[in-house]
Amino acid sequence: MKLLELEGVNAFYDKSHILQDLSLEVNEGEVVALLGRNGSGRSTTLKAIMGLVSVRSGAIRFHGRAIQNHAPFNIAKQGIALVPEDRRIFPNLTVGENLRLAALSGRKGPWTEARIYEYFHVLGERKDKPAKLSGGEQQMLAIARALIANPAIILLDEPMEGLAPLIARNVEDVVRRIREEGNTILLVEQNVEIAMSLSDRGYVLSNGRVVASGTIAELRADAAAMQRYLAV
Ligand SMILES: Nc1ncnc2c1ncn2[C@@H]1O[C@H](COP(=O)(O)OP(=O)(O)OP(=O)(O)O)[C@@H](O)[C@H]1O
Ligand SMILES: [Mg+2]
User: Fold this and answer.
1) Average pLDDT over residues 139-148
2) Closest to 24 (Cα-Cα) out of 13, 35, 14
3) Chosen CATH of 2-89+150-230 out of 2.40.30.90, 3.40.50.300, 3.40.190.10, 3.50.30.10
């Protein structure tokens, strides 16, 4: 079933036309990769979905209802959670306060604070301490904040970015586990191999346009697009 759909979306930063007639869809239970080089518009796509970048024309539908240009808080309440590139942890709040704040803008569901601490032991150990965390712990907290909102879809923006290889592997394992539990994810990940190993389908962006799309097998078979737009 179609959960999220972008149809002919155009978005601008000032006068720069960033997203150009962008269309894509994510079905319930799927992990969909947004691939492309730096600056191709992947983060802007996630921000437009979340209401953080305004959409000039086109539609974004969630459960079939238009949500483009709704307030980010309302979009979160409807069941969309973003794990942003820059993580946005509040270091002066405790880990628990960071989680409870995120829960406020989310929905009730299976993810509770207690369950988060069972799932992420490192967060449980620090729940009452200020969230002055290492990069890997921050990313775990950023993902945990998305989960505690019990979203219908999680938008993940380069979750492994900037982490030491071993820590990045831990975060990758978490994403894999969340996927295996049947969660719907729209994933931006720079490492094409990792992105493809985590996803069911993908869209390749270049200059804010979709230039290739399909199942992971179809994308792999499209050597020309892979070479031209992803340089692999
Ligand atoms: N706040 C902003 N103001 C003006 N231009 C921006 C802004 N943010 C991004 N851009 C521009 O929009 C384009 C798309 O950026 P976006 O952040 O979506 O790329 P990306 O695919 O996520 O790549 P990366 O994360 O590697 O930068 C780029 O040309 C970028 O320079
Ligand atoms: Mg980005």
Assistant:
1) 96
2) 35
3) 3.40.50.300
